[in-house]
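ok here's the first one, seq then struct tokens
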Amino acid sequence: MVESRSPGALEGMRVLDFTWVLAGPLLTRHLAYQGAEVIRVLAKARGDARVIPAMAQGVGVETGSDKLSIGLNLATSEGREFAQRLVEISDIIVENYSVGVMERLSLGWDVVNSLNPSAIMVRFPPMGSTGPLRDQITFGPNLTALTGLDALAGYPGGIPAGMGTSYADFVSAAHGMVGLLACLLRRQITGRGQLLEVAQLESLVGVMGPEVMDVFSNGHVTPPQGNNLGYAAPHGCYPCLGDDSWCAIAVSDEKDWQALRLAMGDPDWSGYPEFATLANRLEYHQDLDINISRWTRQFTPYQVMNRLQESGIAAGAVQSISDLIEKDEHLAFRGYVERTPIGAADTSVSLRRLEPRLSETPGYARRGPARFGEHNHYVFQELLGMGQGQVQAYMNRGVIEELEPDLSL
């Protein structure tokens, strides 16, 4: 039996999860944290992010949190039949396989809608389910390249730097959540579900509104600018005391510039004519950065940040990921990082709280990621009404797949 939970905003809602890696699993993780019963359908042939060695301990743990896990071989007719039976008793079906995979598994929208007219199906085709590029092979970095984001990331005259993360997955998961909430509200009125498609390419284009409009309105293509902005100077990351230590500083008006001058002790160079106005500081930003760097090198990033913050200036120490998780007092105070047990093992992992915080039904991780197929008996016996002998028989035949030590996290 699945352990009891405290009520969440989505308590009583069941989600059937055919997702892997990031975009889909991030969405269903949010639903699980809000109290929905999320049943993750995995298979030995293709599991989740944990089957990719470099991602096993990171993404797999992150996206598998608080979900139930079953092993089901969808390459068999019986496996597909069981999946269809689960569709009949689910509120939401989520998938992010390549275009056409769910149709080949007899789990496409037409089948889902005929089996369960009230079900909502969410899909994340990277390029969309139509169009000349619908069948392109994608992974996070090539989507940011196609949208033009990579062309903006870098320094003038240099090569594209890229985003350093699978940004498309995070953005499309957020867009998927908004679309899903709209579908749920509509279902309250009509009683019927619908298909929600979130093309990851379009989600990324959507975050580039100003740059796109600049082309449409002015015929101007924004070049890579590094840390520079056309309306703020100084603006960038400045070296501090210590090895590879930096602090970001942003000054966008005269009031902040005067405050910065005072915080630095009003050095002589800050009164030079080339720094007298914002327009001048933008023109001579390289000289400005050199002078500010001489000052910041005397202090640690946190000393610079604290001194400038006390003067009302936007400044932040450049933290590593370990700094963020292990040292950030603000996140620790807000309980953003929590430790959650993994199954019955006497171990735990650090997991993030859900970012949106509801006052009456706060979302959070109630347990760690499930072991592969950990909830086979609950799902097939309690939800589908099969006997223990039947479940074991299908396990013996490889339809329902058993626990695998190498996919235990």
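and now the second one, same deal
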Amino acid sequence: MTGNFALIVAGGRGMRAGGSVPKQYRVLGGKPLIRHTIERFVSHPLIEGVCVVIHPDDRELYEDAAKGFDLIEPALGGAQRQDSCRNGLQALELHTPQNVLIHDAARPFVGQDTITRVIESLSEETPAVVSAIPVADTLKQADNDQLVQKTVDRTNLWHAQTPQGFRYAAILAAHRSVAGNNLTDDAAVAEAAGLSVTLTLGNPENTKVTTADDFESAGRLLTSPTPDFRIGSGFDVHPFEEGDHVILCGLTIPHDRGLAGHSDSDVGLHALTDALLGTISAGDIGSHFPPSDPQWRGVDSAVFLKHAADLVADRQGSIRHIDLTLICEAPKVGPHREKMRARLAEILSLEVDRVSVKATTTDGLGFLGRKEGIAAQATATVLFG
């Protein structure tokens, strides 16, 4: 259990967007807008439960939009957004959350990495965190006739977004203490109650769908999303020791020496593991499998690679290609290349044509040229979203 819950606020009428139903239930890309938003949170590995705040008249629309999801019983909205959020927070009380992320239903493009950053920023010392993006445009202040009065310094100015994350007990107490003030967002409630509020980076695509034009823009974004490709690299080297074989890419290859190392010393799988971890900024192989820990002595390095692949999948990543280069004078890689590709494809559940294995030498230069060990460098390409 993570102790992290999401509260999706959908209690408004939202008629500025046009249509015969509130905007959160209008169809966007073949399904209700709110369903896109719910999906972002129920699929996140750090979110334990999701509750939606709905208008009392929208129960049937909500049930249809949320069909198939295992959600907490919805809370009923109040007269103002602040009332709706307070009702939703109180509905979560039985689940004893540690943290709660409050998000607008009309923001269906929140990134998984944004959700993660908000959660990871919360602590006892940081009870309130707002996802936001720095103001990049020049700002003008005008009078009622739209006559410019001055240019506003944009230094340290941010566009606030949602989700906004909070220590649950602190934000519930804040809502109760400032009820009736009609504040515009939950960070304002936290500020009014004396809580310190911290910013964390949001994502520019996380726009709020409000008008008919916004729906058109959102539809284009769904049909032509910007691919989020990330490339990670890895490098590893192991010296030779006494032995009669080496393990490379999961294969046992006869040789007049073995490779020294804490696990099975599979230099290829180690480099690939670091490459995959690099795509999610999750440290290196040693931080997940410390060489000082005896449980990893002699273990099959496929365990490491599969762990990294699972972490990528948890972040909604899809491995599109891996490229591995083995650097050594001996043993010869060529005769084993296709079996290596097949084994890597098996471990990572990839098509073989997405796996590249190459070999090279240093033309006799350096410790590799002196046949003192084997090195490997790897690149992984992953698509997120």
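notes on #2: The chain has a mean pLDDT of 93. The first strand starts at residue 4 and ends at 10.
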